[in-house]
TrEMBL record:
InterPro entries named among the record's database cross-references: Beta_hexosaminidase_sua/sub, GH, Glyco_hydro_20_cat, Hex-like_dom2, HEX_eukaryotic_N
Listed name of the protein: Beta-hexosaminidase
Keyword Glycoprotein: yes
Superkingdom to which the source organism belongs: Eukaryota
Residue ranges constituting the Beta-hexosaminidase eukaryotic type N-terminal domain according to the UniProt record: 56-181
Length: 562
């Protein structure tokens, strides 16, 4: 900015005026657009709830309901059964959801105590039957459950509220659904279940329902990562893809190579081994796996801060030096240490956006290529396949970004899971060749793309272009990606939510239930409701219908209208 006084500079004054008018025009445009959106929704008041809709998110597979209202005792007790009934994960989950359900309820009021009034409740206990005592959490774990909520009247076979699940993780999903059925009534100051009796049978459509979290572009404190994981459980997402390191920073402790985290931004922006173990443990108690990613051979400049020999040269710092066996020793050391932290069977090896110019322009690497009769494309393939071999030797299934499949599909290990991101059409090609696939089309499921509206995220279909049933089964599911260039602790949650919830329902609920023609009438009011539920639970979910995601409300109004 210059030092001239704009008051004496007509050109500068006109420029500022033009900028101000442009800003005013944009505000008026956004405001008028939002008014149009509200009018098209037909929602004149937050009190106008469409009783034909079911305000559960994601929508269960099968359910019926009635027209009764049941009261829930503020001292709701847990009764367990089955081989897995004594699971600590179940008991922690019950306590967690009980605190959510009765957040506004304080038991019998002091006024009722003075009057000597004794209140009776329709639901006084929650019975949970878990058949398996296994707490192993891997891809495809049984998350199915049944949930019955009805008034105990002496005639019903099942009394009050009952959950039945094969695993504790199915029980956790049921607890989430039960918590959404429970509503605090401000008139009676009690928790009630409307439209009872409820009979719900539910299971996920896809086994893999993920969220990528990038802690390299911006460091996220452990507590923030936990908050994200907690919010994931509310939408029944079940995989945190932890993109922990990249070219910008290397914040993770690797005991075998202790200088690697010299690549962190500062000494205060790091994750110890104990931090990582705590995150994995926290996620498991919510039925969420953590898939770590070590992106090679590109996106690895930060590695050389501690070990400069990993760079092809000090002036050309990535991809990692393919010519040195010591490079693969470091990769193996990292994976050996990480295997002690991350029990999930999938491990992401990246492999995207590899610019091999450094290899052809660095003398010793170029000589190595010539000696091995390799092109830089051959060397790219060599590096990816060698990294896969290392991961497989440690009992991991490798996941790679789609560039590896696009470049050398016939050479990839058959166990490879192809991770789509560049656009549509990749999963159909991958499954046609027998590979499994994860859908993350950047045009709809990259959350850092702030111009992608909720309906585009909601309507994205992982099985698009795949008609063969056997090939459809090779699509593990999908993942929304929260890349961190423009997201840190200050805005990460409102960038993730509520658009991640749109994808979450697509991945959990039946395809026919989420494919209604007019989503503004069938899905949008429910997404508004879920966004407000997230807000009530302390999640900073942004308004649903803003033109630019994560932007604040443009005017006063109800959470259910924005």
């Amino acid at each position: 900015m210059g030092t001239q006084n704009s008051k004496l500079n007509p050109i500068s004054h006109f420029s500022e005026f033009r900028q101000a008018m442009s800003t005013l025009f944009l505000i008026l445009f956004v405001f008028s657009h939002s008014l149009c959106v509200l009018q098209t929704q037909g929602l004149n008041s937050a009190d106008e709830v469409n009783d034909s809709l079911t305000y559960l998110w994601p929508l269960p597979s099968e359910f019926t309901f009635g027209n009764k209202t049941l009261s829930v005792h503020p001292q709701l007790s847990l009764v367990v059964g089955g081989n897995g009934g004594n699971s600590s994960i179940l008991r922690l989950g019950f306590d967690r959801y009980k605190a959510i359900i009765f957040k506004n309820s304080h038991g019998v009021s002091s006024f009722d105590r003075i009057r000597g009034r004794r209140l009776s409740y329709d639901v006084t206990k929650l019975k949970v039957v878990v058949h398996s005592d296994s707490e192993d959490l891997q891809l495809g774990v049984d998350e199915s459950y049944t949930l019955f909520v009805l008034k105990k009247d002496g005639q019903s076979i099942v009394g009050e509220a009952t959950i039945e699940a094969n695993t504790v993780y199915g029980a956790l999903r049921a607890l989430e659904t039960f918590s959404q059925l429970c509503t605090f009534d401000y008139g009676s100051k009690s928790v009630q279940v409307y439209r009872a009796p409820w009979y719900i049978r539910d299971s996920p459509r896809f086994a893999y329902r993920g969220l990528l979290l990038d802690t390299s572009r911006h460091y996220l404190p452990v507590d923030v990562i936990k908050q994200v994981i907690e919010s994931m459980s509310y939408a029944k997402l079940n995989v945190l893809h932890w993109h922990v390191i990249d070219r910008e920073s290397f914040p993770l402790e690797v005991p075998s190579y202790p200088k690697l985290w010299k690549g962190s931004y500062t000494k205060w922006e790091r994750y110890t081994v104990e931090d990582a173990i705590e995150i994995v443990s926290f996620a498991k108690t919510r039925g969420i796996n953590v898939m770590a990613e070590v992106d090679v051979p590109g996106h690895a400049e930060s590695w050389g801060a501690g070990y400069p020999n990993l760079w092809p040269s000090t002036s050309c710092k990535e991809p990692l030096d393919v010519s040195k066996s010591s490079t693969f020793d470091v990769v193996s050391g990292i994976l050996t240490d990480m295997r002690k932290i991350f029990p999930f069977e999938l491990f992401h090896l990246g492999g995207d956006e590899v610019n091999t110019t450094c290899w052809s322009s660095t003398r010793h690497v170029k000589q190595w290529l010539e000696q091995h009769n390799m092109t830089t494309k051959d060397a790219y393939q060599y590096f990816v396949l060698k990294a896969q071999e290392i991961a497989i030797s440690k009992n991991w299934t490798p996941v790679n970004w789609e560039e590896t499949f696009n470049t050398f599909p016939t050479k990839l290990n058959p166990k490879t899971v192809v991770h789509n991101w560049l656009g549509p059409g990749v999963c159909p090609n991958a499954v046609a060749k027998g590979f499994r696939c994860i859908f993350s089309n950047q045009g709809v499921w990259y959350l850092d793309h702030l111009d992608v509206p909720w309906e585009d995220a909601y309507n994205a279909e992982p099985l698009e272009g795949i008609d063969d049933v056997s090939q459809q089964k090779l699509v593990l599911g999908g993942e929304v990606c929260m890349w961190g260039e423009t997201a840190d602790t200050s805005d990460v949650q409102q960038t993730i939510w509520p658009r991640a919830a749109a994808a979450a329902e697509r991945l959990w609920s039946r395809r026919e239930a989420t494919s209604a023609r007019n989503g503004n009438l069938t899905a949008l009011p429910r997404l508004h409701y879920f966004r407000c539920l997230l807000n009530r639970r302390g999640v900073q979910a942004a308004p649903v219908t803003n033109l630019i995601a994560r932007s604040p409300p443009i005017w006063s109004g109800s959470c259910y209208d924005q």
